[in-house]
Amino acid sequence: MIRVEDDLPGAALLDGSSADLAASMAAAGGLWLHGDARHLRLDAEGAVLGWRTTDGSLEAQPTKPNEGHGRWVQTDTGGGLQCQTGVHCGLVLPGVLDRAERFSMAVLYRSDPEVEGRTLLTINGEGDGGSAPYLFLADYGDKLLVKDTSEGLSLEVPKTPGVDGLHCVLVSIDRGQIALQDSAGPVHRGEGVAPALPKPASLFIGVRSHRGGLQKTLGEAVIEDVLIWPGKSLLLPQTPADDAQRVKLARYYLWRR
């Protein structure tokens, strides 16, 4: 064992990036679902009954069609929610956005390069879907798509090449502007019409809504971290605080890789 008597900076500590991210998110009013087993409620079979935010304030729960399908699995960097192709394994964190004009969301996940992760995150109402518009982020193998179903705002980009294992996708919405960054790659931007999302809006994980159909939107991935920043546009920064949040996330992701 190597002992160092001097004080070390936070970045040199094993959990420094996690602590920095947690502190910055708390200061910004953000919410973080981290895939460590201590944040999850599991049944005897390993099915996820609840996924608590790191600050303990809220808990994501299974969507209506998810009857024990979503399971926690261990990974090289901790663990996460196992999603299966064509099976409703998703969770919902209700009412996290009072206003959906400006926000950022991120997901850290693993998927087989030969299998599509499909729906990763969705901003939607708490109804059963219907005709109300929603905004989703999806993995289609070699590309990523973020789109609102009213067709006003959409961005499709290639995945960052050379990334194996854990991906980190960050999305920012600011009214009619959209930006996406995949795994420390370039920031892609687009413009359109601000989506008419429900108020309040909920965050769905691995699915698009409570609807029992839509099996074609359900892919295979292990979702390890989910983060959302109401009112913050990390990739379309309005203040230095927005950019500081992005840097904290980037450090956390690079450390975990």
What does this structure look like?
The chain is mainly beta. It is built from 2 helices and 17 strands. It has a 9-stranded antiparallel beta sheet, with no helix packed on it. Helix 1 runs antiparallel to helix 2. It is globular, with a radius of gyration of 17 Å. Mean pLDDT is 91; it is low at 10-14.
Task: Write a concise synopsis of the structure shown.
The chain is built from two helices and 17 strands.
Beta-strand fraction estimate: 35-45%
| Uncertain regions spanning at least 5 consecutive residues | 10-14
Biggest sheet, spatial arrangement of strands: 2-3-4-7-16-9-10-11-12
- End-to-end separation in angstroms reads 24 Å
What is the H/E string?
HEEEEEEEEEEEEEEEEEH
Largest sheet: 9 strands, antiparallel
Please state the overall shape, judged from the principal axes of the Cα atoms: globular
Helix content: 10-25%
What's the mean pLDDT score?
91
From the alpha-carbon coordinates, what is the Rg to the nearest angstrom?
17 Å
The total count of helices amounts to 2
SS-based class: mainly beta
Total strands: 17
